[in-house]
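stage 2 :: seqdesign
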């Protein structure tokens, strides 16, 4: 869901393990870029009616949306009305082990076009006073990732590759994710809607529970994907961490829309896990926020020599 970068863990037994940060990068100057289509599931383009169906519909939309599905349909229509969008991303990720805390933060800009569908992000991870740049393209269904600045090598692969999928942050794909969450209402999930002045807030939450009891919730699956690289590193260092004993302390995802235009104004994802470690627990947290900065009118193309 979000790009990964390295940071050293904070306790001696884990000091050689990296901590992965997920965030999103973006960039470009609105200059030239050209790309084939092929975005992650959930990206939208083309003619989409108010109910989210391509090809139009004779069914009239309600005067005011009320259900999560109706709000999401309005948002899809509003976001697909522009050629592209610019998003600002801020994120942090942390581990607390035996009272010691290690964190990494991430800031980035994402530019995303819809016809053709393409994404370009540039960002930087900061950990222990060290800054590490990262750049990501998604063009024609293939992701291209460069970590470490202009001299670093590009890595590419399909979105079916988890390492590639994890570095692609597409804020518009949150619309499809929330459609999935809304369909879970009959199985204990669902999306709540609140409409304070000037905005509509869609939210899905998972309260404290053991991981196996909520493992099938879509939002938990997303959170577990974020946890997995760190969990893999912990296990390699000798932390058994059986999934049956991992606790979901909290998972929450929020999608905020402008109540007049129904455009996305922000998207936030937060999760906290407690991982067993002897008689104690390792606390893993992640918090990433994407904010819509405005319309992007440029195009996105791969730099020369990147294929």
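stage 2 :: out
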């Amino acid at each position: 869901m979000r790009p990964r970068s390295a940071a050293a863990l904070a306790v001696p037994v884990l000091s050689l393990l990296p901590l992965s940060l997920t965030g999103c990068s973006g960039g470009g100057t609105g200059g030239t870029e050209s790309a084939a289509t092929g975005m992650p599931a959930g990206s939208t383009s083309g003619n989409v009616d108010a109910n989210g169906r391509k090809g139009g519909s004779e069914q009239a939309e309600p005067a005011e949306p009320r259900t999560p599905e109706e709000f999401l349909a309005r948002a899809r229509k509003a976001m697909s009305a522009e050629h592209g969008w610019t998003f600002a991303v801020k994120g942090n990720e942390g581990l607390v082990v035996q009272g010691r805390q290690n964190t990494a933060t991430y800031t980035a800009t994402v530019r995303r076009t819809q016809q053709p569908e393409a994404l370009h992000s540039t960002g930087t991870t900061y950990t222990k006073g060290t800054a590490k740049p990262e750049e990501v393209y998604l063009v024609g269904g293939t992701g291209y990732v460069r970590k470490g600045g202009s001299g670093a090598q590009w890595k590419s692969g399909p979105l079916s590759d988890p390492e590639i999928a994890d570095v692609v942050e597409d804020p518009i794909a949150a619309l499809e994710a929330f459609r999935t969450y809304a369909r879970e209402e009959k199985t204990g999930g669902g999306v709540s809607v609140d409409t304070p002045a000037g905005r509509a807030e869609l939210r899905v939450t998972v309260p404290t529970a053991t991981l196996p009891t909520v493992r099938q919730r879509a939002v938990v699956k997303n959170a577990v994907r974020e946890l997995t690289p760190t969990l893999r590193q912990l296990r390699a260092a000798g932390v058994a961490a059986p999934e049956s004993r991992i606790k979901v302390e909290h998972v929450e995802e929020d999608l905020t829309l402008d109540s007049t235009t129904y455009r996305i104004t922000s998207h936030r994802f937060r999760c906290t896990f407690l991982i067993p470690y002897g008689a104690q627990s390792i606390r893993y947290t992640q918090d990433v926020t994407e904010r819509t900065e405005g319309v992007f009118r440029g195009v996105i193309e791969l730099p020369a020599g990147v294929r």
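stage 3 :: structure notes
- Residues 1-13, 22-58 have pLDDT under 50 and may be disordered.
- The two ends are 23 Å apart (CA to CA).
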